[in-house]
Specification:
Elements (H helix, E strand, L loop, with lengths): L4 H25 L8 H4 L1 H17 L10 H24 L1 H6 L3 H32 L5 H31 L4 H4 L5
Helix pairs in contact: 1-3, 1-4, 1-6, 1-7, 3-6, 4-6
Subcellular location: Endomembrane system
Membrane topology: Multi-pass membrane protein
Pfam family, one: CLN3
């Protein structure tokens, strides 16, 4: 297990990052739309659909992907960390919605495209880890299934921690009155 521990840790990290983006930063970024059209009223759901598209596309190759060196498995996770920093900034500053685009609708459409990238990075990391677990000669065949199960447990822990973080953030530094003009 020592030789595959980096892959297991990667699973926890990538799931923590992508769920922090989807459950916290994206949610906070799509509050209080200026318009009431289809895109504006459903910005979170449409952006989340973009995320799921990216995940589906990148996970679709898991059976065809050759096993990467363990060091390369971290590349999509590090890119996901950059996505997380971007979304953390956007959720509090709203520069995409209010500075980059003239309308919320255009900003929300951009969100959807960005979330495809978030899904691609998460799914690519997932695929790379499973290809590594499947093919690496350093893991005995009898331990591969155990490794997959441990990875699922670690990814679930990453999702749980991101959910708890999202709750804490939504009640503190990312509360609606902290990031938007307070309506009360």
């Amino acid at each position: 297990m020592r030789t595959a521990g980096a892959g297991v840790l990667n699973f926890g990290a990538v799931y923590f990052l992508e769920y922090l983006i989807t459950q916290s930063f994206l949610d906070r970024s799509t509050l209080h739309p200026d318009g009431h059209g289809l895109v504006d009223s459903n910005a979170y759901a449409l952006s989340y659909a973009g995320y799921n598209l990216g995940v589906a596309l990148s996970r679709g190759v898991v059976g065809m992907m050759p096993s990467p060196p363990i060091a390369l498995i971290w590349i999509p996770t590090l890119l996901q960390l950059l996505n997380c920093v971007f979304w953390a900034a956007e959720s509090s500053l709203h520069f995409v919605r209010y500075e980059w685009f003239v309308t919320d609708t255009a900003g929300f459409e951009f969100y959807g495209c960005c979330m495809v990238v978030v899904g691609l990075m998460g799914g690519t990391s997932y695929s790379a880890c499973y290809a590594y677990f499947r093919d690496t000669p350093t893991v005995p065949d009898r331990l591969r299934e155990v490794l997959v199960n441990v990875s699922y447990g670690v990814s679930s822990l990453g999702m749980l921690l991101s959910s708890l973080s999202a709750i804490i953030l939504s009640k503190t530094i990312l509360s609606e009155c902290s990031i938007y003009p307070c309506l009360t």
